[in-house]
Structure formats: structure tokens, C-alpha cells
Amino acid sequence: MKRVLLLFGGRSSEHEVSCLSARSVLAAVDRERYEIVPVGITRDGRWTLTDGVVQPAAGRALPEVADAGPTVALVGGADGARLVEVDERDDTARVLGRIDVAFPVLHGPWGEDGTVQGLLATVGVPYVGADVTASSIGVDKGAMKAAFAARGLPQGPYVSVHRRRWSADPQLVAASLEDQLAYPWFVKPARQGSSIGIGRVADRDGLAAAFEEAYRYDDVAIVEQGFAAPRELEVGVLGNEELAVTAPGEIRPSHEFYDFEAKYLDESELVVPAEVPADVAERIDHLAREAYRAIGCAGMARVDFFLTDAGELLVNEINTIPGFTPNSMFPRLWDAQDLAYPQLVDRLLDLALERG
């Protein structure tokens, strides 16, 4: 039986979303094939062994990693990696056993950006999802968009703005943006997901507040041109060399746009499969494969698109560790392809072990 290190929580602002994803994976994994070792990463970065029960604390809407468990660490050994429990009182350690494969469900910085992937690779543990390079490109919207542009993929207009540039001359930045982009704009932290830190800007008066919010999470903000009532379409991708792509699904947000609350707290409508013409679905399939290969992805990804009212199909972004919550599009897309959640987890672990 393979021992699976399930990593969740983490230092990013997507900590709670990661916990929700972990709870779903724990409920779905085949316990006859895999022994799960659930390790939570606290908000300050401590690895702690958990009991696998992921529930919100009293008075909280979303779960988080409790700080009460023993500290653990992953170390490389002569015949494979081991998880060890560290007694911080006397700096001793006790081996808890080998780790055969890791399943990180860490969203955002310090988890989805190649940092954890590098650690796992260093100690020789196969892991679910993209490698260090693809992870770091995928989480950085500026780098991701540059990779898409190099591949010739269609995208909406955007501009990257560093905090220093905005602070030095806000009026000049605003004027420059107005020369390049039509309102409305969406201002986003470059390396952040789950729609955290995003602001919609209808005119120059709203720009300062939007940048202030985005810069809470990153020193670089991406300003994207919005579109009039675009359809938001998504597909799931699985595979290393040979790829499988789902039929597209559609998000119909419960808010003005698909923000954090619309994703995780309120009921947005997810239409699976989306009602799109056959030629649009075929084009989405092709572009999803190209986006996946543009960043060198492996294992899995979710690729997001806009379909404008003029019929233009644009690649929005790629997510190398998509959400695994009950409301997440990625598992629902695969379920519609007759790959239920337990089988999806099996397939991801098989792909990780295949890549080695």
C-alpha cells in the first residue's frame, strides 16, 4: 500500500481554501490502495501532523490548520524519503515512516509556486501536479501571460504595474493605463489565486483603492481590461505526455464578478457541460492543450477562458493546483466525463508515480 503525504493549509491567504480542498480529497481517496498521512502547514509555516479531521473552529466559517499537533519534517534517506516527528523541547526526532508520493493541495504562494515542489523533488518524493518551473510560471500572472504570448495564444489586453512605479507617480500610471486599456479594469495581485485581492475599476477614481488592495498580497499588480458580460468557461486537463481535456463548463457568478465570496461562500451557478457550439468547444480543447504545454505543465490543470459578446475566445489563465472543494469546477468537470472524485484522485496519484 502506497503512503501518501497530503499537504494542505500553508502560509498564503488561500489557507482556508486549501483546507477545504484537503477535506474533499480525504473523503474521496481509496483507503484500500493508499495510506494517507495528512500534514497541515500552519499560517506561520510549521508542518504539523493532523488527525485528518478538517473542520472550522467554533465561530469560523472556513477551516484552518490547528496549531496543536506535533511538528514533522520530511527528510531524504538512503532508500527513500521519511517523515519524522520532531520534539522541539530536546531537538530529538522519531521516524514515522516512508513517504511514497505527495499530494500537495496548497493554493497560492509557498505551495503552488514551486517552493514545495522543489522541496519534494530534492528529497526524491514524486508528487501530484506541475514541476517547479511550471508551478512558478503558472502562479505568476505576468510570467504566465508572457508564456502564453510566446505560444501565440489569444489573450485580453493587460499591463503589469510594480508597486514602486505606482508609488512614484500615480497620475502618470493612471494616464498610461488609460492610453492602453479601455474601462472597466480588473486589478489583481500577480501571484495570488481564489480571486483574493481583486478589484474592479470603473474609472480613475477607483484605481488607488484597487492597487492598495492588490499590493497587500504582492509587489506586482496585473491590470486587465474587462469585457462587457463575457462568458466564463473552464476545462480540466489531465496528463503528462498524453493529455485528456474535459468538455467546457461555465461559471455564472452570483456577484458582479467571480470574487472570493462568489466562489466559496455564496452559490454561484456552475453549468456542466456549458452550452457552446461544437466549433467553440473544439477551439477551447485546442487552446487548453496549448496553454498546458506553454508552461510545461504535468499532472493536472484547469484552464480558464473568456468568450466575449463579439464571439472572441480568449485564454484567461491556467491553474496548476485547481480547487478540490465540493463547489470547485475541476472535479465537477471530470465527474461529467464519468471520472468520479475517487477515480480522479487515483488518476492523479498514478500520474505522479508515472512521472517519478
UniProtKB/TrEMBL annotation:
GO CC aspect terms: cytosol
Pathway recorded for this protein: Glycan biosynthesis; Cell wall biogenesis; peptidoglycan biosynthesis
Chief subcellular location: cytoplasm
Molecular function per GO: ATP binding; D-alanine-D-alanine ligase activity; metal ion binding
Active site (UniProt): 14, 194, 328
Cofactor binding: number and manner: Binds 2 magnesium or manganese ions per subunit.
EC number: 6.3.2.4
Entry binding sites for Mg(2+) 2: 317, 319
Cell compartments where the protein resides: Cytoplasm
Pfam families named in the record: Dala_Dala_lig_C, Dala_Dala_lig_N
Keywords noted in UniProt: ATP-binding, Cell shape, Cell wall biogenesis/degradation, Cytoplasm, Ligase, Magnesium, Manganese, Metal-binding, Nucleotide-binding, Peptidoglycan synthesis
Domain ATP-grasp: 145-350
Annotated family: Belongs to the D-alanine--D-alanine ligase family.
NCBIfam families registered for this protein in UniProt: D_ala_D_alaTIGR (TIGR01205), PRK01966.1-4 (NF002528)
Free-text function comment from the UniProt entry: Cell wall formation.
Name of the featured protein: D-alanine--D-alanine ligase
